[in-house]
């Protein structure tokens, strides 16, 4: 089945076929020889709910924010944390190092390093229609947007790099 890994609009990212519930007998098209079979099946789909806390890894950051990917399965990389809005108050971007830094009230600098394991909260979903477009006469490549994108936040206690919060738990 060619549904995995693909995004079905307003459903989510298809991970795999779970099972086939029923199928009809094939109907052969007159003159074409094409066989049509109606199939009822279930899929395993990734679509986190708004407010869900997920662990991921930072795969990149720029002045616009932090891009994260899911750690455990490593199958989805369209999660974006816009900065500084969805990061802690007092956060700043250090362009020379391409990293976001949170300066705490005590003056400590805590870094959002690349490949760092982080916890983030799902805030919104963005769906982009991927319908085929008619070819154009000019040769300029058109930028294709991701069909499914998640906007997340790391602006609450317990969110952000897990290393920060593990150290706090060890001290208690």
UniProtKB/TrEMBL annotation:
Gene Ontology, cellular component aspect: RNA polymerase III complex
Superkingdom as given in the UniProt entry: Eukaryota
Keywords: DNA-directed RNA polymerase, Nucleus, Transcription
Pfam families noted in UniProt: RNA_pol_Rbc25 (PF08292)
Biological-process GO terms, alphabetical: transcription initiation at RNA polymerase III promoter
Chief place where the protein resides: nucleus
RNA polymerase III subunit Rpc25 domain: residues covered: 52-165
UniProt-annotated location(s): Nucleus
InterPro entries cross-referenced by the UniProt entry: NA-bd_OB-fold, RNA_pol_III_Rbc25, RNA_pol_Rpb7-like_N_sf, Rpb7-like
Family that this chain belongs to: Belongs to the eukaryotic RPB7/RPC8 RNA polymerase subunit family.
Record function comment: DNA-dependent RNA polymerase which catalyzes the transcription of DNA into RNA using the four ribonucleoside triphosphates as substrates.
Protein known as: DNA-directed RNA polymerase subunit
């Amino acid at each position: 089945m060619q549904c995995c890994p693909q995004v079905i609009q307003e459903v989510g990212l298809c991970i795999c076929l779970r099972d086939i519930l029923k199928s009809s007998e094939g109907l052969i098209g007159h003159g074409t020889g094409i066989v049509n079979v109606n199939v009822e099946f279930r899929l395993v789909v990734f679509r986190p709910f708004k407010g869900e806390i997920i662990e991921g890894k930072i795969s990149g950051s720029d002045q616009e924010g932090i891009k994260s990917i899911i750690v455990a399965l490593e199958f989805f990389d369209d999660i974006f944390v816009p900065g500084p809005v969805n990061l802690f108050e007092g956060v700043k971007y250090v362009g020379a190092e391409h990293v976001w830094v949170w300066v705490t009230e005590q003056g400590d600098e805590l870094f959002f390093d690349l490949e760092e394991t982080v916890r983030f909260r799902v805030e919104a979903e963005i769906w982009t229609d991927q319908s085929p477009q008619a070819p154009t006469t000019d040769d300029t490549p058109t930028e294709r947007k991701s069909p499914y994108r998640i906007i997340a936040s790391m602006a609450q206690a317990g969110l952000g790099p897990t290393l920060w919060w593990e150290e706090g738990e060890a001290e208690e």
